[in-house]
C-alpha cells in the first residue's frame, strides 16, 4: 500500500452550562469584529447570553443576521454579498444543523474564522467538517466537505436543556445510526488508519444512548441539565462529529452513510417529511430496516426497544408515509450513493422483506398489549 501524505483536523469544543465565558480566551486571537448569524429561534435563545459574555472581552459584535430558510448555495451567496460579512473578522454561527451548515459553508470556504454555538442537540454539525446542502425546493442536494471543522464549538448545555425536547429525541436516532452504518460499510475491509479510527469511535455513538438515553430525555423534558443529558449531548454533537471527520477524510459518504440515511433521503421526496418530521427521527426508523436487511436480529431488537421507549418511530404510519410511497422509495434506494459502498447490493426484495418483518414485530407488540 502506497504511503500517503494527509492531514486531519479534529474539533475543539467546550461544554457546560457557563462555557460562554471561554469566548474571550478562545476567540480573541482571531480579530475584534464579530458577526452573529443564526436561526430566529436560536438567536432568541442564545444571543443575549452570547452578548453578555462578549461584552466582557475586547471583542465587538457588529451585527446579528438571520441565516435564511435552508442550507442552500443561494443562501450562502446571499450572506457572502453582505457588506457586514466582509467587515467581520469572525462569525459566530448559532442554531441547529441547517443554520450551522450554512455558516460553515460560507466561512470555511472563505477561510474566515467561524465558531459554532449549537442551541439544540439534534446532530453533529457543530463539530464536523461537512455541510448538508439542499436544493431550493428543500430536497437533498449533496454533502459539501471541508478540510476542517469550525475553529471551536461552544456547547452550552443550559441552553440545550431548555430547547424543545424533540430535537434531542431525533438526534438520538441520527447518532446511533452512525455506528451501524460505519461498521456495515467498512466490514471485512483493510481500512486506512483514519477510517478504522472512525469506525471504532462510532461505537461511542451508540453505547451512551443505550445507557443514558431514556433518563436524559426524561430530564430534558423537565428542563434539567444533568449528567445523563450531558452524556447524550456529547454523543450527538461531539462523538458523531469526530467519527464523521475520520470517516469522510476522503470526501466520500462511503463509510459515513448507509441504508438508514438512504431511507431518509428517499423519503424527502414527500413534503410531509420536511414539513412535519425531523432528520434523525426518520433515520432512526431507517436503522431498524438496515439491521433487518443486514441480519442483525439482536441489534434490531435492542434498537426497536429503545425506539419504543423513547417514542421514536417503528412504523410507516408514525412518519406519515403510505405503503404506496414506501414502494416508490424502495425502487430508488438501491441506486443511491449512501448504499453504493455496502458490502452487498441492497435490493428491493431485501427492503420489502425487512418492512414485512418490521410490521410483524409491531403487530406482535400490539397483540401483547391488548
UniProtKB/TrEMBL annotation:
* Residue ranges of domain Alcohol dehydrogenase iron-type/glycerol dehydrogenase GldA in the record: 12-138
Q: Which residues bind glycerol?
A: 174, 261, 279
Q: Does the keyword Oxidoreductase apply?
A: yes
Q: Which residues bind NAD(+)?
A: 97-101, 119-122, 128, 134
Which Gene3D superfamilies does its entry note? 3.40.50.1970, Dehydroquinate synthase-like - alpha domain
Q: Where are the transmembrane segments?
A: none
Which Pfam family, any one of them, does this sequence belong to? Fe-ADH
Name the coenzymes or cofactors required. Zn(2+)
Annotated signal sequence range: none
Cited SUPFAM superfamilies: Dehydroquinate synthase-like
Q: Which Gene Ontology terms cover its molecular function? A: metal ion binding; oxidoreductase activity, acting on CH-OH group of donors
Cofactor binding note: Binds 1 zinc ion per subunit.
User: What keywords are annotated for this sequence in UniProt?
Assistant: Metal-binding, NAD, Oxidoreductase, Zinc
Q: What protein am I looking at?
A: Iron-containing alcohol dehydrogenase family protein
Amino acid at each position: 500500500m502506497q504511503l500517503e501524505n494527509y492531514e486531519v483536523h479534529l474539533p475543539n469544543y467546550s461544554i457546560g452550562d457557563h462555557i460562554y465565558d471561554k469566548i474571550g480566551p478562545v476567540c480573541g486571537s482571531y480579530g475584534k469584529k464579530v458577526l452573529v448569524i443564526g436561526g430566529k429561534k436560536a438567536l432568541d435563545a442564545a444571543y443575549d447570553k452570547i452578548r453578555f459574555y462578549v461584552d466582557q472581552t475586547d471583542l465587538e459584535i457588529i451585527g446579528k443576521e438571520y441565516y435564511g430558510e435552508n442550507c442552500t448555495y443561494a443562501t450562502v451567496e446571499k450572506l457572502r454579498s453582505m457588506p457586514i460579512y466582509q467587515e467581520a473578522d469572525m462569525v459566530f454561527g448559532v442554531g441547529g444543523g441547517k443554520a450551522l451548515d450554512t455558516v460553515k459553508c460560507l466561512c470555511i470556504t472563505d477561510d474566515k474564522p467561524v465558531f459554532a454555538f449549537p442551541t439544540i442537540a439534534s446532530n453533529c454539525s457543530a463539530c464536523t467538517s461537512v455541510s448538508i446542502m439542499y436544493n431550493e425546493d428543500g430536497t437533498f442536494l449533496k454533502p459539501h466537505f471541508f478540510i476542517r471543522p469550525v475553529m471551536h464549538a461552544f456547547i452550552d448545555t443550559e441552553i440545550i436543556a431548555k430547547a424543545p425536547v424533540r430535537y434531542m429525541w431525533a438526534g438520538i436516532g441520527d447518532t446511533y445510526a452512525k455506528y451501524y452504518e460505519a461498521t456495515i460499510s467498512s466490514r471485512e475491509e483493510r481500512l486506512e488508519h483514519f477510517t478504522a479510527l472512525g469506525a471504532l469511535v462510532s461505537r461511542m455513538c451508540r453505547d451512551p444512548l443505550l445507557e443514558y438515553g431514556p433518563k436524559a430525555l426524561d430530564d430534558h423534558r423537565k428542563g434539567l441539565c444533568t449528567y445523563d443529558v450531558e452524556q447524550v449531548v456529547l454523543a450527538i454533537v461531539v462523538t458523531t462529529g469526530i467519527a464523521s471527520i475520520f470517516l469522510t477524510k476522503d470526501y466520500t459518504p462511503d463509510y459515513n452513510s448507509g441504508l438508514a440515511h438512504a431511507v431518509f433521503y428517499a423519503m424527502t421526496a414527500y413534503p410531509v417529511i420536511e414539513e412535519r418530521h425531523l432528520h434523525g427521527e426518520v433515520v432512526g426508523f431507517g436503522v431498524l430496516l438496515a439491521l433487518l436487511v443486514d441480519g442483525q436480529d439482536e441489534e434490531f431488537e435492542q434498537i426497536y426497544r429503545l425506539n419504543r421507549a423513547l417514542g421514536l418511530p417503528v412504523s410507516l404510519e408514525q412518519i406519515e408515509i403510505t405503503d404506496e410511497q414506501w414502494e416508490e422509495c424502495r425502487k430508488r434506494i438501491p441506486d443511491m450513493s449512501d448504499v453504493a459502498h455496502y458490502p452487498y447490493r441492497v435490493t428491493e426484495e431485501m427492503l420489502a422483506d425487512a418492512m414485512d418483518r418490521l410490521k410483524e414485530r409491531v403487530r406482535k407488540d400490539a397483540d401483547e398489549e391488548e
